[in-house]
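for the recovery benchmark. tokens below, seq after
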């Protein structure tokens, strides 16, 4: 067995090496920052109703002062705002600043055909119990989630508290006034082209940028993607003018693709959902693959009212219980005999805890990493075998089935789930173009070049993902695109560059009073990102509300809440101590998870390595992280937090 696992590791390393490019993430360019108009405009907000937004009174005006300023109105920003309202702060004291023309974050921007959540909707959609909302399906369609997030704002009186088409560019702490001074760029006009700046002040500031929110495209040779003569679109900004259909349907009628030769670059989670929809209408569909995804059955079904009432939501607190159950099962820390409430293919991926953390291997020393990799490979063995058999059973052509079968362990790429994707390759109009790990070589005026063969296309869909979450070094200001200047003129980025990630509980840092954020560094990780956001938002609201109560009331002005240096250093070093167990990613194929295979810098110094280690998640998994926060709150002293009143 040991020899077999060693051979498997060697194969994985060899396959991964074939796909690693020396330029790393530089092989891609962000759409918003492209120097080519055609590519840059692929990131335009095509969903905004500019006339209605221009006519509406702005939620924030130049010179306004508010208690809470939240940068971002995606799921994280919405949940954070709602938790503040639930903690007792009035909705009118809160303002959200959002770059888009509507709320929802990733669910606003992404409207491609076939879009659904890939975690069960009953745990993915936050505050279902509070709103009394029943998702239509076990995995809800994107349009339903987008509308639901807007309903959350309505429910808590926050719908008119969002400044749309605006970006917080800079936050500067004013020690004398005990406020954050915000520089904001806002847009108006028929296409949002009129730019103006405004200044506002806020007692508290929150950064809520998502993990995957900057769409990217590969830099191809030949004429470049912009030189392709046909229609071009990115899945992060679907163009229904090209395909037909509307974004108000889960499975729109893409009738403009009939008879067309359509190509799609990418086979990740987005492409797995969109590809079957394209295949239904395209004359011919060419799927360009660098690395296959692990595609498991979704087993989608409509929500059954009887099952909802008796099994899913039978008693108060049902969603909190179900959330923790899912997190515990996937982190392999559920007590023996625990019922698997969600019971889908996610909860059967025990080896995925290699990526998210678990209590058993939380503090693995560096010298034990090879042994740890072997243990997780052994843990994944039955899963690998079952997936290989399932793929071979579904896909009729043996060669195509082999090319669609992942060769890497489950933790290396986010698993995907579909009842139709693999089946699509049995259709005569669908062609898999496997690039043998090399990717597409070049674009031409008429199509794409792979292995010296040109594939003529009329329409090209780019399902090429987003900038890696690893690019920011755990710095929340970089992720949010906000320059944050704290006490003494020191920027948050300067602190991160000098010390590495430095937080208490992953949500705040010293030298930056009344600043909080939702992030991934030094926090728990789960396949269900919405639970992470809810956990962080709840914790932040508790800290702020409790400090107010102890200082004289929720309307207290002049209150400054700040992390103490010794507390954040202790937390940061505990996170760094858990970093070696995440070295299991060393055998993985390049992806956004491991910074396109550049997991470590071969020229890094010991100081560099320690800084990188400090940005690790909580290595014992999300349930353990939650326990730490609950223990800290129950202790009652707000240990590590200093709060003063002017």
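predicted aa per position
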């Amino acid at each position: 067995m040991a020899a077999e696992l060693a051979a498997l590791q060697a194969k994985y390393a060899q396959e991964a090496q074939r796909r690693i490019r020396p330029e790393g993430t530089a092989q891609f360019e962000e759409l918003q920052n492209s120097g080519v108009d055609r590519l840059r405009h692929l990131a335009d907000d095509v969903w905004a109703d500019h006339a209605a937004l221009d006519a509406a009174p702005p939620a924030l005006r130049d010179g306004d002062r508010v208690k809470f300023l939240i940068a971002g109105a995606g799921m994280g920003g919405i949940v954070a705002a709602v938790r503040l309202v639930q903690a007792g702060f009035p909705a009118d004291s809160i303002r959200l600043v959002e770059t888009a023309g509507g709320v929802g974050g990733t669910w606003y921007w992404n409207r491609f055909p076939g879009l659904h959540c890939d975690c069960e909707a009953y745990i993915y959609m936050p505050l279902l119990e509070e709103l009394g909302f029943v998702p239509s399906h076990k995995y809800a369609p994107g349009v339903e989630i987008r509308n639901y997030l807007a309903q959350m704002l309505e429910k808590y009186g926050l719908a008119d508290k969002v400044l749309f088409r605006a970006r917080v560019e800079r936050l500067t702490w004013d020690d004398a006034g005990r406020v954050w001074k915000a520089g904001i760029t806002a847009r108006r006009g028929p296409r949002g082209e009129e730019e103006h700046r405004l200044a506002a002040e806020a007692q508290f500031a929150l950064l809520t940028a998502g993990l995957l929110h900057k769409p990217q495209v590969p830099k191809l040779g030949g004429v470049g993607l912009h030189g392709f003569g046909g229609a071009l679109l990115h899945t992060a900004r679907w163009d229904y003018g090209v395909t037909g259909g509307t974004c108000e349907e889960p499975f729109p009628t893409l009738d403009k693709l009939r008879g067309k030769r359509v190509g799609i670059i990418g086979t990740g989670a987005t492409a797995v959902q969109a590809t079957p929809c394209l295949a239904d209408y395209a004359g011919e569909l060419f799927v360009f693959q660098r690395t296959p995804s692990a595609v498991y059955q979704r087993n989608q079904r409509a929500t059954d009212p009887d099952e909802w009432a008796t099994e899913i939501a039978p008693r108060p607190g049902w969603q909190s219980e179900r959330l923790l159950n899912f997190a515990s099962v996937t982190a392999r820390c559920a007590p023996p005999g625990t019922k698997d409430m969600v019971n889908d293919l996610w909860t059967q991926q025990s080896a995925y805890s290699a990526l998210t953390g678990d209590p058993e291997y939380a503090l693995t020393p560096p010298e034990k990493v090879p042994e740890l990799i072997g243990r997780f490979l052994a843990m994944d063995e039955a899963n690998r075998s079952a997936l290989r058999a399932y793929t071979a059973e579904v896909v009729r052509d043996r060669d195509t089935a082999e090319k669609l079968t992942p060769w890497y362990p489950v933790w290396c790429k986010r698993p995907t789930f579909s009842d139709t994707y693999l089946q699509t390759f049995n259709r005569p109009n669908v062609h898999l173009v496997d690039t043998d790990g090399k990717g597409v070589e070049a674009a031409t005026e008429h199509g794409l070049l792979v292995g010296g063969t040109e594939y003529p296309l009329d329409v090209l869909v780019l399902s090429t993902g987003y900038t890696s979450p690893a690019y920011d070094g755990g710095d929340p200001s970089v992720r949010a695109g906000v320059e944050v200047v704290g006490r003494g003129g020191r920027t948050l980025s300067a602190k991160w560059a000098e010390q590495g990630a430095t937080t208490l509980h992953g949500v705040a840092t010293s030298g930056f009073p009344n600043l909080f954020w939702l992030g991934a560094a030094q926090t728990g990780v789960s396949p269900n990102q919405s639970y992470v956001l809810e956990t962080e938002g709840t914790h932040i609201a508790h800290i702020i509300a409790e400090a107010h109560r102890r200082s004289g009331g929720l309307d207290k002005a002049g209150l400054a809440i700040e992390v103490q240096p010794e507390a954040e250093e202790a937390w940061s070093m505990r996170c760094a101590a858990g970093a070696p167990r995440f070295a299991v990613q060393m055998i993985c194929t390049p992806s956004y998870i491991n910074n396109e295979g550049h997991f470590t810098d071969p020229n890094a110094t010991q100081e560099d390595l320690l800084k990188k280690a400090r940005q690790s998640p909580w290595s014992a998994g999300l349930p353990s992280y939650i326990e730490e926060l609950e223990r800290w709150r129950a202790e009652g002293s707000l240990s590590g937090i200093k709060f003063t009143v002017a």
